[in-house]
Design brief:
351 residues; alpha/beta; Rossmann fold; two-stranded antiparallel ribbon; 20% strand; globular
């Protein structure tokens, strides 16, 4: 073979390999099998009536070019309701429904999808036969609202674009969003489009509505019945206390980086409720999370001393590294969900 022909053959071979490699890198992931649902729907629970008086009557133009309407804000309102969407797969393998409770400043979207378009934990657990209930807590998302601050007290807390990047252990400290730098090995989707998709999910949160939210979660448990509760961050408070107040309604409690503890005076109420606490990476170097985690571990020890069962999993110790506070949205989200699933299987919650 001449030198020219040999060079051409080698070039063709290299081109073919390169094309195959490029195609492999750009090829979409293998599609997952479909999810079969028996039924799905939504409802609202909880809430109470409040009466407003002494407010001035106004004229309001609801649409440009329309006719002004007289609006009298005085009267009876319904506030503090909670939204829940349920999906019932076929076949069912979870021994009880799974209630998925989101964290502060967020909604049920936490569980539905990821910022870069992958399936969320709701789909993961549906595929494994769990009936799922994804809720929007009081005054979040699709839950009802009321007069603010007259009925809620306080003022809502809003997040700037860079706040979650720095506070949820994604970026490597103050100013990291502007620098575009992350913690080493971080698994959260940080390309600009994905991160901003996450920020678009953030909603106002209140520090004065915990009692109303706790009541709504209690109403949800009363309606659904005994359930597995999966609670993230702020909802850790509601998960702990729901299990303490209604231990017959909480079959198991999964706490994903709980930001609070339960009632120290009621630890004995948890003796028959298996609990899992899951923590991600980068905690030791954070300004707040070492204390938050230590408080959670101390409470877990108190529950154990009272005869309860609490398992604590630190993902880095399992070789699952780089997880942020939003581990259900990290690129390793399915792996972390698998850790939860395995624990539920071990506790007899899956058939």
């Amino acid at each position: 073979m001449s030198t020219t022909r040999r060079a051409a053959a080698i070039a063709a071979m290299i081109g073919a390999v390169a094309s195959k490699s490029a195609a492999a890198q750009t090829a979409p992931a293998e599609p997952k099998p479909g999810i079969t649902l028996e039924r799905w729907g939504s409802f609202h629970v909880g809430g109470k009536e409040v009466v407003v008086s002494g407010q001035p009557v106004r004229e309001v133009l609801f649409t440009p070019g329309g006719v002004p309407a007289r609006v009298d804000p005085n009267g009876t309102y319904l506030m503090a309701g909670m939204y829940a969407q349920y999906m019932v797969p076929s076949p069912q393998r979870g021994v009880a429904p799974m209630l998925m409770w989101h964290g502060g400043g967020l909604t049920g979207v936490t569980w539905e999808t990821t910022p870069d378009g992958r399936e969320g934990w709701q789909s993961y657990f549906l595929r494994r036969g769990w009936v799922t209930y994804v809720s929007d807590a009081v005054e979040r998302g699709r839950a009802g609202w009321t007069m603010i601050p007259e009925q809620t007290g306080g003022t809502p807390v809003l997040l700037t674009v860079d706040n979650p990047y720095e506070r949820f252990r994604i970026g490597d400290g103050i100013g990291s969003f502007q620098r575009g730098t992350t913690l080493p090995g971080n698994q959260f989707p940080t390309d600009r489009e994905s991160y901003l998709n996450f920020v678009k999910q953030c909603v106002p949160r209140f520090t004065t509505t915990d009692a109303l939210t706790q009541e709504a979660y209690a109403a949800l448990l009363d309606r659904v019945g005994p359930s597995v509760v999966v609670a993230h961050s702020q909802a850790g408070l509601f998960g702990w206390r729901a299990a303490q107040n209604k231990p017959d309604k909480v079959r198991a409690l999964v706490l994903v980086e709980p930001a609070a503890i339960g009632d120290p005076a009621k630890v004995a109420a948890l003796k028959d409720v298996p609990v899992l606490m899951v923590y991600g990476d980068f905690i030791a170097q954070d300004s707040r999370w070492p204390t938050i985690r230590a408080n959670g571990v101390r409470f877990a020890e108190a529950v154990r001393a009272a005869g309860g069962s609490v398992d604590i999993i630190d993902l880095p110790e399992r070789g699952i590294r780089g997880n942020s506070h939003m581990m259900m949205m990290d690129k390793t989200s399915d792996t972390v969900a698998g850790v939860v699933q395995d624990w539920l299987v071990a506790k007899g919650m899956w058939r």
